[in-house]
From TrEMBL:
<protein>
    <submittedName>
        <fullName>GDP-mannose 4,6-dehydratase</fullName>
        <ecNumber>4.2.1.47</ecNumber>
    </submittedName>
</protein>
<keyword id="KW-0456">Lyase</keyword>
<feature type="domain" description="NAD(P)-binding">
    <location>
        <begin position="13"/>
        <end position="314"/>
    </location>
</feature>
<dbReference type="InterPro" id="IPR016040">
    <property type="entry name" value="NAD(P)-bd_dom"/>
</dbReference>
<dbReference type="InterPro" id="IPR036291">
    <property type="entry name" value="NAD(P)-bd_dom_sf"/>
</dbReference>
<dbReference type="GO" id="GO:0008446">
    <property type="term" value="F:GDP-mannose 4,6-dehydratase activity"/>
</dbReference>
<dbReference type="Pfam" id="PF16363">
    <property type="entry name" value="GDP_Man_Dehyd"/>
</dbReference>
Length: 332
């Protein structure tokens, strides 16, 4: 028996689906299971929802306990991919209460709602590599057994949500998978994330909208980056795990190789259509920064056979070309 039954057509629910990853995930779900009935939630107003064919949109505040329960009672989804989150680290320092409410209380609302209203639903809870935090200082690749050591409100709230998901699986028997994706980027990512910030500045410079200088933070930090499409393909692979793999197991999602942010910036600058310099902007420095982030992905590869398909070059091409399109569209 696999994680979700596709015959008869499965009912799938994606929370926080109007965000960066959600839009890629919805398209991937349609490609993988074209007969599935896909529902998606967003906190945005109706006129801001994307018009994805075949997706049933619901306006939902994940922090509203009663509305989360009511939606689950109505849908009884076969699988839920929980993306809804406050995912921006600087914002988590500026608004810690909001970050904790969305990331932890929102997840508790979902898990309790599943327990009460739809206990056979499979829940794919999406965490973050940031949960490991200070554990990266060892210099060793982290495994799923590495203790969390969060260094910011975002990481702490996601770590608590991850632990809660594991607890509901252990004590209440919920069918849960805990995904722990590392850095990812791609078309549609906001420009307050590092590679999208670089690519957006390059696109603006090419369009003559700013001087030929890219402002940067710490370029020596080494991170494990994937294209968002590879992360989404890992989520789909996890949804197809056999029943024995649906009891709260955790999986790192990464390439297993760290690369310096400066090296990725150099690759982006080499793709620019005009000469561009770069300089350090102290405002872009992050407190409690970690030098190297590296993952052990043995568990994911052994369980699913997943491996990333897009190279860093392809990832950067996709990101930069998308930023170019968005800059041109915004200027019209």
């Amino acid at each position: 028996m696999t994680g979700i039954a596709v015959l008869p057509p499965a009912t799938l629910l994606v929370t926080g689906a109007s965000g960066f990853v959600g839009r890629h995930l919805l398209a991937a779900l349609h490609r993988r299971w074209p007969n599935a009935v896909v529902h998606a939630t967003s906190q945005e107003a109706i006129d801001a929802w994307p018009e994805d064919s075949g997706v049933h949109w619901h306006r939902l505040d994940i922090c509203h306990t009663g509305r989360v329960a009511a939606l689950l009672r109505h849908l009884h989804p076969d699988a839920i991919i929980h993306l809804a989150a406050q995912s921006h680290v600087p914002t988590s320092f500026q608004q810690p209460a909001l970050t904790w409410r969305v990331n932890l209380q929102g997840t508790l609302n979902l898990l309790e709602g599943v327990k009460q209203e739809s206990p056979w639903s499979l829940v794919l809870n999406v965490g973050s590599s940031d949960m490991y935090g200070g554990a990266f200082r060892s210099g060793e690749p982290v495994t799923e057994q590495t203790a969390f050591h969060p260094l910011n409100p975002y990481a702490a709230s996601k770590a608590s949500a991850d632990l809660a998901a594991g607890q509901y699986a252990a004590s209440d028997g919920l069918r849960v998978i805990r995904a722990r994706p590392f850095n990812h980027t791609g078309p549609g990512q906001r420009d307050d994330f590092v590679l999208a910030a670089f690519a957006t500045q390059i696109a603006r410079i090419e369009a003559g909208l700013q001087p030929p200088v890219v402002e940067t933070g710490n370029l020596d930090a080494q991170r494990d980056f994937l294209d968002v499409e590879d992360v989404v393909s890992a989520y789909l692979a996890l949804l197809e795990l056999p029943e024995a793999g649906l009891h709260g197991q955790a999986y790192n999602i990464a390439s297993g190789h760290a690369v310096a942010v400066g090296e990725l910036l150099d690759s982006l600058l080499a793709r620019a259509r005009c000469p561009i310099d770069h300089r350090l902007d102290p405002a872009r420095q992050r407190p409690a920064d970690i030098q190297t982030v590296r993952a052990d992905t043995t568990a994911l590869r052994q369980a699913t056979g997943w491996q990333p398909l897009l190279s860093h070059g392809a990832m950067l091409d996709r990101l930069l070309n998308d930023c170019r399109r968005r800059v041109v569209a915004a200027a019209q």
